## 1
Amino acid sequence: MAYIIRAMKQLLSRSRLLGVALGAISTAAVLVQAQAPVPKHRIAIFGSSVANGTGDELNKEGYTGRLRDMLAPRGWQVFNQSRGGDNTKTMAPRWAPDGEPRANTKYLMTANPDYVMFGLSLGNEGIKNGTTTAEKDAIYAQFESGMREFVAKARANHIVPIVTLCYTRNDFTELEYGYTRRMNLLISSTWDVPSANFLGAVDDGTGKWAKGFWWDSLHPNASGHDELTATIVPTLFDALDRGTPMPKKSTAAGFVRITNGFTPIEFEPADLMHPFALAFDVRGESPTDVAVVSGVMLDASTQIKHIERGRGGAVDLEETTLAASNQPALARVSIVGGAWTYTSANGHDRVQSTVQADGQWHHIVLSHYTARGETLFFVDGQLAGRTAERFQPKKFVLGGPGAGDMATPTRRLDVKELMIYRSALNADEAAALAKGALLQASLEVYSPLNDASFKSGQPVINLAQATTFATVGDGVMAHMDR
């Protein structure tokens, strides 16, 4: 009997110890769960009036509100921390409150962001006010210095920075337009910070707002904000969240040789795309379609809206809206008559370069501005010509004619350095690409096309900060080193 009692006491003691141990494990699990990092999905837009939504007569907070709507289904939050009239000097005190926060002031740090998109421009910085070259150079340098300080400060606070490139104003002359293009090229080609090319959406070709896309001299209307938003790569923040590094120009040797192909390299944008640029290096001689962009033509409708501007009184606002038509679009880059040639999306217009397809490497840029309704065709960094058109791209094909009924497969082409942008590129940017620069603003696809192998249905390497990619289609494709 005594033995049984001792055994029961030992069992009870062990049960208590086990219970304590299980309790400790359970408590530790709760603590670990409580201490697990919260997903970093908070984005603050920190800028001036355009970032704040000025000009958006639909009251959707401009490109900030549109970005919020675009990213919400992906699990992101977007906070509007912008204020009209700000430049690098006046925005700096709004970084964080010094003591008691000032009433009705939007500070960056109170939004507790994980990412910040800086939305300022040379216009507010006062580039127009400089009366001499020295004064304009000083304003340019002030903007550059201020933006670099913002980027560094964000990183010091463990916030990932993004920059929007400078955009247009209706009072800009060719001089201010030149400073704007220069600043944008500097940021896109040399800064180690992601960016969006706003100028590539709304530029009328002289540094002013495209007709029908502005609210007043300084601000876009709702349609203008639509076009600005379209330049932001939709999966940029997802890529940053994964730790995708800044793209760098590939130094590895190699290219792809394509024979007997209709759709060798394909890319279909997952999200709506308006302005775009397609760039690549190509070598060939035989008459063939080198690249095809298919989609739908856009109908442009311009109307006059009677708008109340509060203390500014009522105005009649001219606004252009774009809508997809039922007419298919098929833009083609080809070798025709021995020269590099562009055929417009409706098939009616042709731009023929004077550069021959001579079996040497040549650089091609197709740049389309939906707002102003124009496509620019560059060969080896030089403008070969332009044509008036508006279309929405839905599929890019490189190395073949696409899958049309009358298409003839590629005989032989060598291609490399594929880049697809969600903004149009101007002459300065096309020339920089032709000289070997890598522009990262609004870049969705950068595939050097030096993959070790190319298998149908498989993705090709994408070094851009995006989660999308081009894929291998049909044809005989081989990696080549020389």
## 2
Amino acid sequence: MAEPIVIVGAGQAGAKAAETLRRSGYAGDLVLIGDEPHEPYQRPPLSKKFLSGAIDAAQLWLYGPTFADELGLDFIKNDRVTSIDRAAKRIASKSGRSLPYSQLLLATGTRPRVLPLPGADLKGVHVLRSIADVEAMQAGLKSPRRIAIIGGGYIGLETAAMLRQMGHEATVIEAQQRLLQRVAGPEISEFFRALHTRNGVGIHLSAAVKAITGADHVDGVETSAGCIPADMVLVAAGSIANDELARAAGLESADGIVVDGQCRAAEDIYAAGDCTRFFSQRYGRSIRLESVQNATDQARAAAAAMLGATEIYDPVPWFWSDQYDIKLQIAGLNQGYDRIETTGDPGSGSFSLAYFQGDRLLCVDAVNSPRAHMTARRQLAGVTPRA
């Protein structure tokens, strides 16, 4: 009897891979292991409706409570895989389990980047990645608070928007010269700076954080621009790929588990989702994508490859962010652009920016313009990948 397929990580990618394997006809034993005490759930609402209390944990679930029975899989919650024995084809877990596998899928995701700052361990300092993280924040938000947010990326800005709507003060501290600098162009950065300023969010750019201050509980953030009072601090300074398990097993990792075009990291070992780095022929370089789109699409591709498919995984990346009544949708990656074309009026709150390298379209940022976003995805998908 064949050993089971084991999936490590019960987030968006791991759950989608399990579903895909079953829907594609895999009838053997299947094990899904997650390190949280929850069903597989969506993470995007954590910084929005779940933080505000508009939805509860059960409304985050990707599937119903009987999904494991329906898919005929062994779902192990609240346990963490600690090692992979590639020679014996077994994994070991923190709880003492030792499980064999015929094929292994690593969908271990990411974790928040921890800043080595004085005061980082004070009470009232939070990160936002899981249900438990949000519940810890909610406990300190029962009355109006001053929240300092370290990081002006998606999570930082989405949380700032929601906190303002909940009646709290919010200040965003960004070390770079502009918001969203890693993912969007200057025009988009300025649009969101103005949007948040109009909604009462304090914005500090080019501000290096020196320390988080306080005796027992946080009372402020010391920056190169001065001290910012705060009753709570959210560190939203990016994420780190959870690739330690793979590296310890001798798999190639470079800020992510390196996989080939079929999502394969080694013989009988695959990886998918935020933890994974792959070569994009479309963009001519190695990339690691953090998005729901990539987690689900790469999980499908990995599951198909485990069942013998040979197609190359090379998607058009796309992302979105909801802040106040604004939806930002991005199709493609803008690195390497040399000109921008604007459609619509940014002052109207509905417009798009197309990024080109010469005559080649690289990316489109669409603000409250879903048609522009979908058109861009179709155009980018039609581009012949580089050799």
## 3
Amino acid sequence: MQADRGGVDDALWGRLLAAVERDSAEILELARWMAAHPERSLEERETSERYVHFLSERGFRIERGTAGLPTAFVATRGGGSEATRVALLAEMDALPEIGHACGHNLSGPASLLAASALCAVVSEQELEIRVVGCPAEELGLGKPRLVAAGAFEGMHAAMMAHASDMRRAHRLFLGIRKFELVYRGRAAHAAAYPEEGRNALDGVIGFFVALGLLRQQLAPGARVHAIVSDGGQAPNIIPERAAARVWVRALAEGVLDAVAERVLACAQGAATASGTRLEVEEAQGSSPAMRPNLPLTEVYRAQLLRLGLAESGEAPDANIGSSDITHVSRVVPTIHPNFPIGRNLKLHTRPFAEACASPEGERGLLEGARALAGTALTLARSQESRERVKNASISGQVLEVPRGSP
């Protein structure tokens, strides 16, 4: 199958690949530095500084501290009334204890490299490139605030590529709702005056029992997971406070909200049964499900074909979690494809972090940069592609994915 060239002839394609190659050594050094110096969410100060330095040297206009986030930024090059406007997302945070086990040391630099290559081959009047520095993805805090602050206003498309053990152009994310459940009881001496107490921990335990019974009736694809975040202070004191943290996930919004409602009903029932009072707080970091844009996915897929790279065949809903990029997908056509950095890898593990610092990880970074750059260039050169992407967004298309389908 021949790739759709989308208005990008062989000469321009060759120049784009050469531009990626030209800056690759500097970007790979940045990726290695990040792997060796992981910075946690909202603490990505040096990483953000290095991102900004790289972009400033290439003529980008920099806005720092976007959305009140000290490590966030928006870097812009090009513009004008006729320009195609593309946002490249640059994540930066690492995980506690295990460092860059989600691959942001590869995905962020891949976006920077794609942006740099585009600057070398397309005019500022034709393409506006906006690199958005996105902190705190692991907390789910960065992108919703950036969206609210207008960081993606006026964009025709937004994109980034993420490390994985698979190559796929189309990848979905589960919506997620996060709750903190606090049970309030009455303390008493557990041996001398147990009848005087109201055991808040009984409320939490009752909730987990009800949740276990609920799970057999959950819709396919819905997931619920919870932990006890406060179980009391000492065995001889009936706990007056106990708490649980619960996350609900699903692909379909209706399913997500319906399951969340039933989970909260379980929580309230446990409070009634235990004679305690329930307080519910929806925590920061809740996100909707990914809103796909299939024409934009097809443009990225065409770049893989042109690079001679075959997708690995996994379904878009296989082995997925949640991400705050779904907030971006609600305001601009967005894709979040995968590039491979090894085999049989699992996100958020030490082996994944090791793969992110390996030669195969670096090859994945370069693949992502080439495909992202080609996608943005195709949008700039092909009005037909832009129209398909725009029309899919206007129609509000929602993809219902049959389980296990590619």
## 4
Amino acid sequence: MLARKILVIEDEKIISSKIRKSLQKLGYSVSEITNSGEEAIKKVAETHPHLVLIDVCLAGEVDGVHIADIIHNRFHVPVIYLTDSSEYKTLYKNQLSEPFCYIVKPFIESDLHFAVEMALYKHQSKKILYEEKQRLGSIINSMGYAVIVTYANGCIQMMNPRAELITGWKQSEAFGKDLVEVVSLVDKDVGEKIENLATNVIETGKVLNLPENCTLITKEGKEIVIGDNVAPILDQNGNITGAVLVFQDITKRKETEAQLIRNAFYDGLTALPNRVLFLDRLRQTIERSKRRSDYYFAVLFLDLDGFKEINDRFGHGIGDDFLVAIARRLELCLRGGDTVARFGGDEFTILLEDIKDITDATNVAKRIQDSLRSPVNLNGYQLSTTASIGITWNFSNYEEPATLLRDADIAMYRAKRQGKATYTIFS
């Protein structure tokens, strides 16, 4: 497999050299480094990189944010912003509001690696999502669209069979009625009823796309997510004689989008948040703690004791079922706002937000140990385990999730060495 190509746009030579060495060490190809925004656009066109890292405050007339927009929109290449803390605070509400789109200088190699991999992963996920939308669109097109035609006064003139099927109205019933009587639409984003779209289009003469989360209330009261547009109907002289509403049921597409997002952020076996989502929530929690001096949180790194023996003796099927059962028990040990994630294998991580002190974290660890003492009944087998738990919290003013998790992992291994079935606080 060829190394993925990365273009670095950074006008500070020392930093750019360090980034290049780090990226090459991590196995990426960094063929070009440029400190000019204009030159960067040319290099992107020539080299077709998989990713671009760009300083938001490049020297010159055109800033890094503008260059990044051009690269992203014209070449469809993912971009990571390089910014210092002051630039981050200024730009956070705008360009840097999307998760994993930036990295704050100075940064350690592991953070750079994580940011690059997340950017590449997100780009690939969006590409897959886009392709899935296209595929679903083709399927729906082959099935046909619902079509409703109105007169110039916004009253219904015609409905096709597909429109009858979706709305629950027959054309004979709907003929002559105001469009909103038959096509009752709600914008779910704002929770408001949508007025007569045909009248709007007839008055403006412009095509109107349906809102992103437009929901149709059928004659029977069923809610169906629909999408497409309303367009004016013009006669040979260019006069508007009515409007045509073309729409389709996109419920399945919405469900697919939601499933794709779920696959990206949740563990397929246990349905718990995965490593990616846990790190994102942890990063948000760290930022929240920076704004509140009295805000404390803790991370528990949990490894099941003896899980390998269960897998070896009873097989991976029983092992998987056992992990699912343990996941449900861990959830019951937490408050509603806390997060438990499957970090990998038989390792779990827990984020406890807004705690009073470390005692809250140790109480949860004790509660988990008590919960695990009760055996799990699977296929007639009584299976039980214990857990080695490492605990760390933000009393030490952690800046990065990776550092906090590292310390929790160290504490967990200390618990292992102390005889397992216990917890240790990192010190």
